[in-house]
Amino acid sequence: MSLLRCRLPPPPTLPISRTIVVLHPDYPAGENQLIRLPANDDGGVHYDTALVACQILANNRWDGYFARKTAAPAAAAPVFERVVRPADSVLRGHEHYFCLPDRPTPNPGSPYPILVAFTDWRFPHSGMPHIWSDVDLNPADLGTGAEEGSMPRDGCCITACGDGIENTHLVHRNLRIWFDVNLMEQYGFVTSATSEGIDSPCNVLRMRNDLHTVFDSGVFAFVPKEGHLALHIFVSTPSRQLGEVYHNRMLYPLPLISREYLFVRFAWTVFSYRLMTPFLAEGRPNHRVVLRWDPEGAKHTVEDIDQAKCTTVLSAKRAKSSSRSPSKKRRAESGSAQGRGTSADADAGTDTDDSSPRGRSRKRATDCVDSAEGYMNVQRARMVPV
Please, are residues 343 and 333 in contact by the beta-carbon 8 Å criterion? Predict the structure, then answer.
């Protein structure tokens, strides 16, 4: 009998702390960070992923664009030059501004509003960005090698592994009220006559349990790249091994999965605690102009929140991201808040998954956290290997 030695993983080759920062043009320097993303794509970040993330934050402004500030005469208003989409689809350069066509110059007195909570976001039934509408969910060119062969039945959609697999909801079960209010059931029909709502097969992936934990922490999501669906790392984990192994990896075919539910999961990730920290906390902003959903009026309202309120919103997000096992009472309160669509701490979901593909009674609650920090707390408690 021969034993296998433990093999240490090679040191990561991704840049240590390289990030791409997107700025809001209407706030002063030092208080104008909108979002910050790891530069894991050849020294930059995938252009369309970053752009659509910012467009979602600006309330589905698909006409928004990236720009650079150019030199301007003294005492003159800054001039922004539009960034043309690079041929290789990678946005490089440390800082960019996200601008709107109806506001070509900065307006410090009236910043354009930003959404800061997922539950205030409304699904764009009129149409998603074309890269999402056109993405191929059933690719036939994954290769023929041993590691890239056909996926086993009930295998992980990322690794094809057949062991330790769980059901993984794209739209979390505890977002059921948001799901219903946003009329999302219409995207879950397997046939023309039946739908299981939020538990529709169109909303459920099969995923290895350790990756499921990280997925529900907001560390990564699936996005369209070069016409295919690929895994994208939004938050670097302490070991950074996740990005080394899985960033930009194409998924195995997902013939039943809804593009709309994939898009909702992407949006949920954008509103996570770690990604919203720059806007709500960096530079200790004096105020932020945000959009909140008014369920009674069925419309968005603009709210000017001060530094204390920014801290409260972010603290609620962080508390949710670090909560590994919320009580039933807190879950019920979270569900009620989601129905109102006004609670930032309702952004973290909790998914209950059946690890048995045949519907046995074996259930496991997986707590969704909004940050790599929360993910590491979960991992330490469960001793689940990455």
Answer: no
Q: Which residues contact 306 (CB under 8 A, 6 or more apart)?
A: 286, 287
pTM (predicted TM-score) = 0.81
Using the CB atoms, write b or e for 249-287: b if 16+ within 10 Å.
ebbbbbeebbbbbbbbbbbbbbbbbbbbbbbbbeeebee
Residue 78 banded pLDDT, cuts 50, 70, 90: confident
Report DSSP letters for 275-314, one per residue. HHHHHHHTT--SEEEEEEEETTTTEEEEEEEEHHHHHHHH
Cα-based angle 325, 327, 330 (whole degrees, multiple of 5): 115
Residue matched to tokens 């954008």: 270
- C-alpha–C-alpha distance, residues 284 and 379, integer Å: 31
Would the pLDDT of 335 be above 80?
Answer: no
Residues whose CB is less than 8 angstroms from the CB of residue 177 and which lie 6 or more positions away in sequence, other chains included: 335, 336, 338, 339
What tokens appear for 317 in the block?
């997000």
- Enter the tokens of residue 247: 């960033």
Q: Average pLDDT for residues 124-144, to the nearest whole number? A: 83
DSSP code for 192: S
pLDDT at 122 > cutoff 70: yes
Distance of CA 344 to the CA centre of its chain: 15
Residue 57 has pLDDT above 90, yes or no: yes
Q: Residue 214 pairs with which residues in a beta bridge?
A: none
Those residues whose C-beta lies under 8 Å from the C-beta of residue 87, and which sit 6 or more positions away, are none
378: three-class secondary structure by DSSP: helix
- What is the full DSSP assignment across 219-258? SEEEEEETTEEEEEESS--SS-HHHHHHTTPBPPP-SS--
Element (H, E) at 52: helix 47-57
- Cα–Cα dist 204/185, whole Å: 13
DSSP E strand boundaries for the chain: 19-23, 33-38, 45-46, 65-70, 79-82, 90-91, 95-99, 114-115, 165-169, 204-208, 220-225, 228-233, 287-294, 299-306, 350-354, 363-367
Lowest mean pLDDT among 69-73, 78-82, 112-116, 286-290: 69-73
